[in-house]
Amino acid sequence: MKIGILTGGGDCPGLNPVIRGIVRKANNEGHEVIGLRHGWRGLMEKEILLLDLNSISGILHKGGTILGTSRTNPYKSEDGAEKVKNGFKELGLDALIAIGGEDTLGVATKLYKEGVNVIGVPKTIDNDLCSTDFTFGFDTAVNVATECIDRLHTTAESHDRVMVVEVMGRHAGWIAAYSGIAGGADYILIPEIPINLEEVYTSLKKRHKRGKNFSIVVVSEGAAFDESELCLQEKELDQFGHVRLGGIGNMLGKLIEEKTGFETRVTVLGHIQRGGTPSAFDRVLGTRFGIKAYDLVNEGKFGQMACLQGNEIVSVPLEEATAELKTLDLKLYELAKTFFG
Ligand code: F6P
What total number of domains does the chain contain? Predict the structure, then answer.
């Protein structure tokens, strides 16, 4: 068999372990693997990278993706989907493994329905993909954010300040909730629940009244006062219709200082959360997903996505996995609230 692999959407730690897993197992069983460069663009333009034992040597611990990535949406150009299908044929592929988030896997779902032999692997630091308990990249992002919150604690405490930390999470508050709980945040704001400023002020004042002179507020980039008021860096949409989020932390910081009188500083973690070496958990999860994706190809189970359920790696139809987003389990938010104020 000749198997193609592509990585699409935002990069994330754990992509290289997936690629390595697929190539190693395919190679053991005598199959050829090629990489498509920069997501769907690689298949449209037939930009390839040979994936053999040499090219995957030493990549397990490396963040990002050796294939490169992009947010190219083939369905956005008139002949994009045709180009993808022609690329698949002309490169002599028997199967394609698409590693990506909601957008990349949304394209994979459509292509599968149009007859392409595709398998999906879920990736995103946001952890907002359905049908899988966790996506790889999330654990690393949470660890990075938690370490940053720990560091902010000591400087907040020394200066009697409120520290607002803006973390990623476009539609879901998984990173904010996990890093906030792990880092002992005094308030957490997530996209799933509209921001109630009065509650934030009351909670911080209550804490300061009981003698704590500093506070940590964690906010997801996608948190908003109401849905139509997302904070944007740019209004321009990408090919999947997404705006560039960012700025809610600064807006909150100003308001908190103004309304409570507590000196406030803001830190935006941004792409620091997405870069760098994957955690051990993400290396193992990525490797398990890679092996499962290869097995699905081998069994001819196309249109499926590898996923983690409990501690088992299983598969679900791509259509089911991409039907809706997995927002934060609000039970976790209730738990986090125990520590507010
Ligand atoms: O989809 C993951 C994510 O990290 C979001 O949380 C964030 O909004 C987005 O990617 C930013 O991606 P980029 O800057 O690469 O467009």
Answer: 2
